[in-house]
Amino acid sequence: MNLLYLALSTFSQTGGIEKVNKSWLKALSNLQEGFQFKLSAHLLMDNQADTNYLSKNSFKGFKGNKIYFILSSLTKALKSDVIVLSHINLAIIAVLVKKVKPKTQIFLHAHGIEVWRPLSKLQRKALQVADRILAVSTFTANELIRIHGVDKTKIQVLNNALAPDFKAPEDLSKPANLLKQYDLQTDQPILFTLARLSSAEQYKGYDQVIEVMPALLKRFPDLVYLIGGKADTAEQERLNGLIEKQGLVNNIKLLGFIPDTELIDHYLLGDVFVMPSKGEGFGISFIEAAACGRPVLAGNTDGSTDAVLNGQLGQLINPDNLTEMETAITQLFKENRSEANAYTIQQKCLKAFSFEAYQEKIKKLIFQ
Q1: Are residues 199 and 329 in the same domain?
Q2: Residue 168: which residues within 8 A CB-CB, separation 6 or more?
Q3: What number of CA atoms fall less than 13 Å from residue 126's CA on the CB side?
Q4: Does an H or E element contain 194, and which?
Q5: CATH number for the domain including 52?
Q6: CA–CA gap between residue 248 and residue 267 (Å, rounded)
Q7: Range of the domain at 343
Q8: Could you tell me the mean pLDDT of each successive run of 10 residues in the chain, 368 residues long?
Q9: Rounded to two decimals, what is the model's pTM?
């Protein structure tokens, strides 16, 4: 069997979709040992493969050349038995292949906001011809049915998982090096958010957390809110202005981009991971925080519900209700600062979202 995996980017950029692609490529590479199939991966934006996930022999990068990518991928696709499309923007491949070679099995990822909005005629056609649509959350599955009328029998919910190289920490205490770096105390209450800070995507909920900070400071006078993630210039200026206007310069720190090698320590630094978003397809950062033993606060109007196990890993709230948010954060601070609770959260998360369990689901999906 020939299996082709198509993606926009995997190794050249960072983000939730890129993490999903890495997990799939690692799982498929591992599964080659037990199943007779040839794996090929065409990645539009990438230049070279990370051999921790994919062998060089299976990789082909196109450095952003869209025309070459489409032509080469179509040629390869017509020789493949199974095609996995990692994004709806690859719809043209699905539609053309099904016209020429209708027996080809096509799996299409549906991550979140990219399929919640109006789609082009070509993209809607891809939803029709795909043999199986892999929705990362129940919410995304329901939106595919509600907005685009997709047959529910062809949708399978496949929740995202922890990356194959994510090593859950054994020591769940706050890292001394970061406490020193940010001039914080061990017992100081800390909120942490990790998100892309984009002026075009203001749905992550950090604005609402900033709004509720003055009320929280009455309960927790030394509270600090750490916001990690790369910001574009407009969003950086807007947030700085908002923080200054609220008089919170001493209580909120914008940390900027955090490299993967420092992510776990930053999750451990916070007492509660907060991201009351209204636009998450799933939210990998939720399960990464929980895998570090930290309870999460998430919105209840998107795919976050799946990532938080319907509240088992923290609390789900109406992201627009500041009173509800204040109450939930207060409760999480008071209930979840013990080591026993931290390990309980971690174990629940690892049981539900381990890479090993994810690989097993992919095996059943493709080969059984």
Answers
A1: yes
A2: 162, 291, 292, 346, 350
A3: 27
A4: strand 190-194
A5: 3.40.50.2000
A6: 22
A7: 176-352
A8: 97 91 97 92 96 96 97 97 98 97 97 95 98 97 97 97 95 96 95 92 91 96 96 94 95 95 97 96 96 97 96 96 97 79 95 97 93
A9: 0.93
